[in-house]
């Protein structure tokens, strides 16, 4: 739990001007309440269907949902071709900005050609609907083109964040048995080219260790940093020599509404990431609906910018499927916010006249640290709506965001959702809701949530409970790839009697009934809006030859929301070399998982606090890490371990 909910604070009502032009209305909630399924059918009809659907929801095999039964559509055609057919081919879909300062504007007509070429190549190498494709790329246009080309052919993409290590890539490639891996030669990191294909080579291995499923590695030239890029003949091909040579015409086929669109791996409470499965019709319906209403998007007028990476679900739903299905014009930026300097985001907002800006609270807090002089040096008056995602936003950051970036008037949508929910679930509706700083306010029209206690009884206002989703929703995950049991166990066993989805978050209502999300209640940390499991980091740490045991917790952090704090016990006879050892351990985590999972702090301790059943009491370690009085220690085998831990920390 990382935020507290005041019992009641005033909200910021929309200005009459904003309300008058807003896509959302109070009536939308009424319509959804009076007939939820009919409401979703209406939203689905915002898309083009080749074959109309019959039943809106088949929940007879719960928790496995089928939405828009019998309907057929092509997701890529909905995101690209239909805008061209409607005469909007010259509209810019993507203003792409590279980290070194290069840029490309891609119209819908051009996007259609590029996606068609990639689809033709994927077909030429024998991929057919249902095959899996791994995408391990920085934020270059070809990453999005690849995702859409997969969608066009019914191939299931699995995007792996390019900041993940070779090991993390390999386990995802193997789990999904991907036939094709798409990557780049390198990627820019704070102005410098860094290798990326090298990680693919390492991940896929050779000879007896080679990833068995992979037939081809398709490489986009991005950094051109290595004239002797290692190459596996027969396996590796350049995008320029293959995709670029294809015909820009491609006849798309329609797929079933439940055809799998993508897998996206996310951390759970165990060390093994889960391949979250999303399908086509329901996912696109909700991604598209939420983009239109939550961001109040006006076609042909707005310029949208979501700062997420395509490696996360936010990048899938609000860089690709949500905006493009609505014919939006969006900005995609390849690099970090301080490259070449801290003005980068604000320069981009000015240059393209960004009207809707969607980022994570961590970045807002980073901007606050850099100081308001930086944004104040720019004309940000184009901005009319701001969004926040990924972690609870503290009221101070909310107010700063609105005042400094939003000119004191822009509504803020604090959007709660998850990889598993596929699209936004709980958020203010701009123009309708008087949003309170720090509250996600209320479920969107068509979405139903509750806050309940251990026994599934609704909590009273002010009381903390578990956030559950008590009705299925169109973009809900359809399972965990290859692990039906884990799907039931993780999400549906906690409130099995009621048949509710357990989100893993704590929440409460304030006296006005506004909903405040308080953070994870399981062993999942949230660092800069990135979800990392304590178990994954622990397993990376014990992978070091010197470590006997490790316990990891997320301690509150003023910038990143939570910071990773580790406690390790060394093996008998291993010498504690101090900073050298700590550096090695941090490196170990970086290599095993990703630099984003590196602990902020590692404490070498003589013992870990355990219950009689051998469970590590993370709650108490968190008290230590956050410098609090210890909570209840009565179930510990040996409460005195804390003296030793504290002594080591001091
Ligand atoms: C977890 C999901 C949503 C896409 C990015 C993260 C936390 C997300 C909020 C918010 C408070 C939030 C929750 C959730 N979270 N948005 N607006 N307020 N907490 O997706 O990696 O699947 O993580 O992020 O704890 O369970 P994810």
UniProtKB/TrEMBL annotation:
Mg(2+) binds at residues 542, 544, 547. ATP binds at residues 390-392, 414-419, 505, 520, 531. It holds the Pfam family AMP-binding. Gene3D superfamilies: 3.30.300.30, N-terminal domain of ligase-like (3.40.50.12780). Its EC number is 6.2.1.1. Its cofactor is Mg(2+). Acetylated. Deacetylation by the SIR2-homolog deacetylase activates the enzyme. GO terms for biological process: acetyl-CoA biosynthetic process from acetate. GO terms for cellular component: cytosol. Residues 85-481 form the AMP-dependent synthetase/ligase domain. Keywords: Acetylation, ATP-binding, Ligase, Magnesium, Metal-binding, Nucleotide-binding. It catalyses: acetate + ATP + CoA = acetyl-CoA + AMP + diphosphate. Residues 26-79 form the Acetyl-coenzyme A synthetase N-terminal domain. It is an enzyme of class 6 (ligase). It comes from the Bacteria. The modification N6-acetyllysine is found at residue 615. Belongs to the ATP-dependent AMP-binding enzyme family. Catalyzes the conversion of acetate into acetyl-CoA (AcCoA), an essential intermediate at the junction of anabolic and catabolic pathways. AcsA undergoes a two-step reaction. In the first half reaction, AcsA combines acetate with ATP to form acetyl-adenylate (AcAMP) intermediate. In the second half reaction, it can then transfer the acetyl group from AcAMP to the sulfhydryl group of CoA, forming the product AcCoA. This is Acetyl-coenzyme A synthetase. It comes from Gordonia desulfuricans. The gene is acs.
């Amino acid at each position: 739990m990382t935020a507290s909910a005041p019992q009641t604070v005033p909200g910021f009502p929309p200005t009459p001007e904003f309300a008058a032009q807003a896509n959302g209305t109070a009536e939308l909630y009424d319509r959804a309440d009076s007939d939820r399924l009919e409401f979703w059918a209406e939203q689905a009809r915002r898309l083009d269907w080749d074959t109309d659907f019959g039943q809106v929801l088949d929940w007879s095999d719960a928790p496995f949902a089928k939405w828009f039964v019998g309907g057929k559509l092509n997701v890529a055609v909905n995101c690209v071709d239909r805008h061209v057919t409607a005469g909007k081919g010259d509209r810019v879909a993507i203003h792409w900005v590279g980290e070194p300062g290069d840029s490309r504007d891609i119209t819908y007509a051009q996007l259609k050609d590029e996606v068609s070429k990639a689809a033709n190549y994927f077909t030429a190498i024998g991929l057919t609907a249902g095959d899996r494709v791994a995408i391990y790329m920085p934020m270059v246009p070809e990453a999005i083109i690849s995702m859409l080309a997969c969608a066009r052919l019914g191939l299931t993409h699995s995007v792996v964040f390019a900041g993940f290590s070779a090991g993390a890539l390999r386990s995802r490639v193997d789990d999904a048995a991907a036939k094709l891996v798409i990557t780049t030669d390198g990627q820019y990191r704070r102005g410098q080219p860094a290798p990326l294909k090298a990680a693919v080579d390492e991940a896929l291995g050779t000879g007896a260790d080679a990833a068995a499923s992979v037939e081809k590695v398709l490489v986009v030239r991005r950094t051109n940093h290595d004239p002797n890029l290692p190459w596996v003949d027969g396996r590796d091909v350049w995008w320029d020599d293959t995709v670029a040579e294809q015909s820009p015409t491609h006849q798309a086929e329609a797929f079933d509404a439940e055809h799998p669109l993508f897998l996206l791996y996310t951390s759970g409470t165990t060390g093994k990431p889960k391949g979250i499965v999303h399908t086509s019709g329901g996912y696109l319906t909700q991604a598209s609906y939420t983009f239109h209403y939550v961001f109040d998007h006006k076609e042909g007028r707005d310029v949208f910018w979501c700062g997420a990476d395509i490696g996360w679900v936010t990048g899938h739903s609000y860089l690709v499927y949500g905006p493009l299905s609505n014919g939006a014009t969006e900005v995609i930026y390849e690099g970090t916010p301080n490259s070449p300097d801290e003005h980068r985001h604000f320069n981009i907002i000015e240059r393209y006249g960004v009207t809707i800006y969607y980022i994570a609270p961590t970045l807002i807090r980073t901007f606050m640290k850099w100081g308001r002089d930086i944004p104040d040096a720019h004309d940000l008056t184009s901005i009319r709506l701001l969004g926040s995602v990924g972690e609870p936003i503290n009221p101070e950051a909310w107010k700063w965001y609105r005042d400094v970036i939003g000119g004191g008037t822009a509504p803020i949508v604090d959007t709660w959702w998850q990889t598993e929910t596929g699209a936004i679930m709980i958020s203010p509706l701009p123009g309708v809701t008087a949003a309170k700083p720090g509250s996600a306010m209320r479920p969107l029209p068509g979405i139903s949530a509750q806050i309940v206690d251990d026994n599934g009884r609704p909590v009273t206002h002010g009381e903390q409970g578990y956030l559950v989703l008590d009705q299925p929703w169109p973009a809900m995950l359809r399972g965990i790839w290859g692990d039906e049991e884990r799907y039931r166990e993780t999400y549906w066993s906690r409130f099995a009697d009621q048949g509710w989805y357990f989100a893993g978050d704590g929440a409460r209502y304030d006296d006005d009934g506004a909903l405040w999300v308080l953070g994870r209640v399981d062993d999942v940390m949230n660092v800069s809006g990135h979800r990392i499991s304590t178990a994954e980091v622990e397993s990376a740490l014990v992978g070091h030859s010197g470590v006997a045991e490790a316990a990891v917790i997320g301690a509150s952090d003023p910038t990143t929301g939570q910071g990773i704090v580790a406690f390790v016990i060394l093996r008998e006879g291993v010498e504690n070399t101090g900073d050298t050892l700590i550096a090695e351990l941090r490196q170990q985590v970086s290599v095993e998982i990703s630099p984003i999972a590196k602990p902020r702090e590692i404490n070498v301790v003589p013992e870990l606090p355990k219950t009689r059943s051998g469970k590590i009491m993370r709650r108490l370690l968190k008290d230590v890490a956050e410098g609090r009085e210890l909570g209840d220690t009565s179930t510990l085998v040996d409460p005195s371990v804390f003296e030793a831990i504290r002594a080591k920390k001091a």
